[in-house]
């Protein structure tokens, strides 16, 4: 369930473009108007506004935002106005070829997306950056982590809820043999099962594993693997079981302790607002006894804070 709130009556993209242009004009930028318009339009409406803006003012809205806003607020807004696939592609491209390589972000985007989301995003990546996602993964990652990511973006998995109990039991046994039962780990088996199976199937494997061997599959992954490979397996497993809980945890981590990991905070808020942010908020509150809005409020300030809170909702 999305946390995005839209005006009760349909809005006119042309009027929005005019109001945005007015907000940018003159000395300083009327950020309140910009936030009010853009954080209350869905991705279809945002695309139409950008079209109108380009037609009327012969300028890209993203270019204008770039010159009017700054810091985290600018970064968040530029990501927000993209369509979901364009946004994922942009975050990935930055994570794999920016000034600082961020394999955590790349792993999260890839391993928490559905096969159909990944398909569209791969096409967008190629169209936008003139290079294949697989090529950039190959350049920046290595070992089992690389094998897993390449398989995950390459294999069209089933997305429905049905599972075959026989195959589930078989997979649980194979994972046991590949991990706990032997000395060392047979990573190939972990990669095969985790990348070829649907989320519903993986959730069933986790529960069968627990039932058969009295140990959680998550603990097994943690003790048998490490580094980015472990991170990728855990992301797949947690998203298969409960994506909202997974993202609540990622958000909590980004705001815990000294300082805030703003790029993670922005990434999760902006990419999940139109998907499952209501569920993420519920999981956050359940686990940390504090609302996500409160946490964001205390970790951010100014227009950046106003922007994020407009997306997640203040309760």
TrEMBL record:
GO biological process: response to cold; response to heat; response to salt stress; response to water deprivation
Name by which UniProt lists this protein: Annexin
Keyword Lyase assigned: no
Family annotation (PROSITE patterns): ANNEXIN_1 (PS00223), ANNEXIN_2 (PS51897)
InterPro entries cross-referenced by the UniProt entry: Annexin, Annexin_repeat, Annexin_repeat_CS, Annexin_sf
Domain of life per record: Eukaryota
GO CC, one annotated term: cytoplasm
Keyword Disulfide bond recorded: no
Pfam families reported for this sequence: Annexin (PF00191)
Stated family: Belongs to the annexin family.
Species per Swiss-Prot/TrEMBL record: Oryza sativa subsp. japonica (Rice)
């Amino acid at each position: 369930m999305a946390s995005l709130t839209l005006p009760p009556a349909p809005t006119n993209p042309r009027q929005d473009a005019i109001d945005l242009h007015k907000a940018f004009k003159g000395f300083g930028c009327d950020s309140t108007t910009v936030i009010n318009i853009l954080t209350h339009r869905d991705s279809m409406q945002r695309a139409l506004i950008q079209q109108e803006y380009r037609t009327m003012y012969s300028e890209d809205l993203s270019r204008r935002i770039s010159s009017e806003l700054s810091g985290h607020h600018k970064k968040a807004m530029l990501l927000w106005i993209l369509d979901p696939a364009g946004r994922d592609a942009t975050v990935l491209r930055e994570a794999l070829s920016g000034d600082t390589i961020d394999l955590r972000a790349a792993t999260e985007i890839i391993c928490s997306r559905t096969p159909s989301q990944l398909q569209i995003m791969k096409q967008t990546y190629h169209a936008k950056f003139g290079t294949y996602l697989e090529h950039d993964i190959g350049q920046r990652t290595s070992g089992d982590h690389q094998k897993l990511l390449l398989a995950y973006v390459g294999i069209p998995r089933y997305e429905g809820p049905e599972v075959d109990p026989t195959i589930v039991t078989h997979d649980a046994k194979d994972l046991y043999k590949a991990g706990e039962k032997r000395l060392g780990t047979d990573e190939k088996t972990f990669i095969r099962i985790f990348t070829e199976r649907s989320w519903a199937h993986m959730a069933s494997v986790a529960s069968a594993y627990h039932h058969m061997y009295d140990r959680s599959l998550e603990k097994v992954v943690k003790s048998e693997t490490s580094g980015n490979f472990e991170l990728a397996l855990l992301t797949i497993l947690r998203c298969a079981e409960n994506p909202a809980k997974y993202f609540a945890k990622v958000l909590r981590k980004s705001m815990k302790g000294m300082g805030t990991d703003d790029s993670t905070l922005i990434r999760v808020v902006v990419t999940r607002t139109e998907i499952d942010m209501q569920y993420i908020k519920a999981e956050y509150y359940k686990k940390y006894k504090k609302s996500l809005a409160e946490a964001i409020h205390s970790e951010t300030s100014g227009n950046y804070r106003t922007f994020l809170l407009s997306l997640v909702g203040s309760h």
